[in-house]
UniProtKB/TrEMBL annotation:
One of its GO terms (biological process) is methylation. This is Glyoxalase superfamily enzyme, possibly 3-demethylubiquinone-9 3-methyltransferase. Residues 4-122 form the PhnB-like domain. It comes from Prosthecobacter debontii. Pfam families: 3-dmu-9_3-mt (PF06983).
Length: 163
């Protein structure tokens, strides 16, 4: 079997707004499909006919679905999306863009929660390499440095690796 897995992001009624926000951030991004509520099941879902139900979209080749599901559920940090970056410029770009426009929240170790409550991990690929280094002292120093950061600063990670 070659089945793909698509995360479904449950929004109250901001799916269109959130998808537009994410498409503005990721260069390789597109909407692939949109479905609409009908008058069937209005008693259960509570949405008017012809309003957006789901939006299928892609960010850098990863498929997602955004659902206007209502106020029943909210996002939390138990699920996050990772953005491994090559440079500090990439880290700064994604971190700053995801934090735009509202009560976004900087979190420890490269995590940022966007204005919709979705958590993202923005980190340098080099961080993973350094934490996997067979020199356990180097890995320990790198992890200690990372734990003291919110947005990851690659130069400070490299400095910690050097000792």
């Amino acid at each position: 079997m070659n089945t793909t897995i698509t995360p479904c992001l449950w929004f109250n009624d901001q799916a269109e707004e959130a998808v537009a926000f994410y498409l503005s951030i990721f260069e390789n991004a597109k909407i692939t499909d949109t479905t609409y509520y009908t008058d069937a099941g209005t008693e259960e879902h509570g949405h008017k006919a012809d309003t957006v139900m789901t939006i299928a979209f892609e960010l850098n080749g990863q498929t997602f679905t955004a659902l206007n599901g209502g106020p029943h559920f909210t996002f939390n940090e138990a699920i996050s999306f990772q953005i491994p970056c090559d440079t500090q410029e990439e880290i700064d770009y994604y971190w700053n863009r995801l934090a735009e426009g509202g009560p976004a929240e900087a979190q420890q170790c490269g995590w940022v929660k966007d204005k919709y409550g979705v958590s993202w991990q923005v980190f340098p690929k080099r961080l993973v390499e350094l934490t996997l280094d067979p020199d356990r002292d180097k890995a320990r120093r790198v992890i200690k440095a990372m734990l003291a950061m919110k947005k990851i600063v690659l130069a400070d990670i490299e400095k910690a690796a050097e000792g």
